[in-house]
Specification:
With 592 residues, this protein is α+β, with helices and mostly antiparallel strands. It folds into five domains: 194 residues, HUPs (Rossmann fold, 3-Layer(aba) Sandwich); 98 residues, no CATH class; 121 residues, Maf protein; 69 residues, Dna Ligase, domain 1, CATH 3.30.1490; 60 residues, no CATH class. It contains twelve helices and 24 strands. It has a six-stranded mixed β-sheet, sandwiched between helices. Strands 14-13-15-16-17 form a five-stranded mixed β-sheet, with helices on both faces. The chain has a four-stranded antiparallel beta barrel with strand order 7-8-10-9. Helix 1 crosses helix 2. The termini are far apart.
Length: 592
């Protein structure tokens, strides 16, 4: 510890105490290692805490598949040089679906980092997870304790957290719970670089200024780490520029800064002069409020940015889906409500009912949507759940044409409310045909816009051998094969071909879900004028608009009824189109 500034020596001592104390209570510990500066300091602290023994805790790296090549090279060399066992985890299921930062934005980060981390922790069975998070990085981390308890679904809950008197930590866990421990909780970015300088710790070279190929978008400098995977805009070219990084993440969503800092000492000076959070280099966070900084008087202050507003701003919710609905739903909740939406990877919503009928849906469409939301809430431990459900058949108002009803709910257990919104799909791609071979389906396939919309195939009149169902067919070859398999299993040697109504197989339905998500967000942003609860909106109608001939009550809507989901407040509003009388064709007296 000789030569370290007093406050840095105290921080080092505290971190080593946390590591030793935690390891003494751990059954299966692990250290999160991203290759960034925080984990690059944490790992040497582990070595120092247990020297001269080999590091007793493995490193866990979550590979998003869009890491900087230099970070991966540094990660492997660091682990090998210092005797750490390195564990690398990738969300393989989502990787096969080509989830990427260009097309999926913040959702990509949730899936390939947050969900992948939960997968890795569950599969590895780790009970105490050491991480390098610091409160000064961003405001959401300021709530963490040094020893932070997580639920069985790895969720952070305020009431589970424990008081921390001096350096006495409570490491006890109930079955299934885990602990995230942050030995560097009291460190700042400046402390990290001071420690790296004084202890001569190697780090990823991206933190040092160097000429790199850069593309500038919306004022942010993107280092093109892999030109073959870059989504180039017309006439866009990467130009050499001297830049470095303050924070490291996936290269398409991490901005560099212009810099001349070629040494650690120069980096220290830049950090000392910084007026914004290091996390504002993350493109997905550039518009957020950022983190907490030490002002000249040593107190924390918020970084410059627009404050979060609205009933759900800054909160977290789970979307229960396994059919890709996040593409239609998440953007609305993030943009309109500033609500962070997570997608669990280990739930099966088909257990609540399927479009193809193998599993019948229990209850109403609203009850099924609520059950689906609660399934996601149980899997993640979050108190807010979102889900949607659809029902297609004869149009609810014109039964001789196809139609559908889409319903979406937000279940909020903190407020004890359920808010729902629905829409009627007047023009769904919902059709069927009966055929023995693909040649019989030409007009049908053109009508449903195949292969953009997928189909399912099953025997038309299943015999005693059962009804094998082929789903998600989007090629002529797959369709032909399914017909050849299904038709012989039918008593009339024909197959039933239907549009696949699962959201990820039916773009028209997905568009309807996107419209519904925005409508629900509009409703959630509207507060009750009586109690202030979110979700105020239309709940019913009153018919009886007077006939313009005889004045008798007609079947047309006269008033809209608005109400609150949390209290008994109700109000009557006139028709939004201003109409005061009904056409006599709708009058039971004039047109019996």
């Amino acid at each position: 510890m000789n030569g370290l500034p007093a406050h840095i020596a105290a921080l080092e001592s505290e971190a080593i105490h946390v590591l030793r104390d935690g390891l003494s209570e751990a059954r299966n510990p692990v250290v999160l290692f991203s290759g960034g500066k925080d984990s690059t300091v944490l790992a040497p602290l582990v070595r120092r805490a247990f020297f001269p023994s080999r590091p007793p805790i493995p490193l866990l790296h979550i590979d998003s598949t869009w890491e900087f090549a230099e970070v991966l090279a540094f990660r492997d060399a660091f682990a090998d040089c210092h005797g750490f066992r390195l564990i690398v985890h990738v969300n393989q299921h989502r990787r096969t679906q080509s989830i990427n930062p260009f097309d999926h934005g913040d959702l990509y980060t949730t899936i390939m980092r947050t969900d992948a981390l939960r997968q890795a922790l569950t599969v590895g069975g780790y009970d105490i997870i050491f991480g390098g998070a610091r409160p000064d990085e961003e405001a959401t981390r300021a709530k963490e304790r040094i020893v932070s308890v997580r639920s069985t679904s790895h969720a952070w809950k305020p009431r589970m957290q424990r008081t921390e008197f001096w350096r006495c930590f409570n490491w006890r866990l109930k079955p299934g719970e885990t602990i995230r421990a942050f030995p560097q909780s009291n460190w700042t970015e400046l402390d990290l670089w001071t420690y790296i300088l004084m202890r001569e710790i190697e780090f990823a070279p991206l933190y040092i200024a160097h000429k790199r190929k850069v593309v500038t978008r919306a004022g942010m400098r993107i280092v093109v780490d892999d030109p073959a995977r870059m989504r180039w805009k017309p006439s866009e070219t990467a130009l050499p520029e001297k830049v470095r990084f303050r924070t490291l993440g996936c290269w398409p969503v991490t901005a560099a800064q212009s810099s001349e800092a070629e040494t650690i000492a120069a980096v220290l000076l830049e950090t000392l002069r910084a007026e914004t959070s290091e996390r504002r280099g993350r493109l997905a966070r550039a518009a957020e409020t950022g983190g907490l900084f030490l002002s000249n008087d040593g107190h924390s202050r918020a970084t410059v940015g627009c404050p979060l507003s609205g009933p759900y701003a800054g909160l977290r919710a789970v979307l229960a889906t396994m059919h890709g609905k996040e593409a239609a739903i998440v953007p609305a909740f993030q943009e309109q409500l500033e609500l962070t939406v997570e997608i669990p990877s280990a739930i099966d919503t088909d257990t609540l009912g399927t479009f193809t009928g193998e599993i019948a849906r229990a209850g109403t469409i609203r009850e099924a949507a609520i059950a689906k939301a609660r399934l996601g809430m149980a899997a993640t431990g979050l108190s807010i759940g979102i889900a949607s459900e659809g029902s297609y058949g004869p149009h609810p108002h014109v039964p001789f044409v196809p139609g559908g009803v889409e319903l979406m709910v937000l279940v909020d257990d903190e407020r004890g409310i359920v808010v729902s919104e629905h829409l009627i799909d007047d023009a769904p791609v919902y059709e069927h045909a009966i055929a023995a071979e693909i040649g019989d389906l030409g007009a049908f396939l053109d009508h449903i816009r195949f292969p953009n919309h997928a189909v399912i195939v099953r025997p038309h009149e299943p015999d005693d051998r059962g009804a094998l169902i082929h789903k998600g067919l989007r090629t002529a070859e797959a369709l032909e094969s399914a017909l050849a398999t299904s038709a012989p299993l039918s008593r009339d040697n024909r197959a039933l071909v239907q549009t696949d109504m699962r959201a990820h197989m039916n773009p028209t339905r997905m568009a309807s879900i996107a419209r519904l998500a925005r409508a629900l967000c509009d409703r959630l942003a509207t507060r009750c004028p009586a109690c202030g609860a979110p979700g105020y909106g239309q709940i019913d109608v009153e018919t009886g608009l007077p006939c313009e001939w005889c004045g008798a009550p007609s079947i047309m809507v006269r008033h809209q009824i608005f109400g609150c989901v949390a209290c008994e407040f109700r109000e009557m509003r006139p028709r939004p189109d201003g109409r005061t009388h009904a056409d006599p064709g709708h009058c039971p007296e004039c047109n019996p």
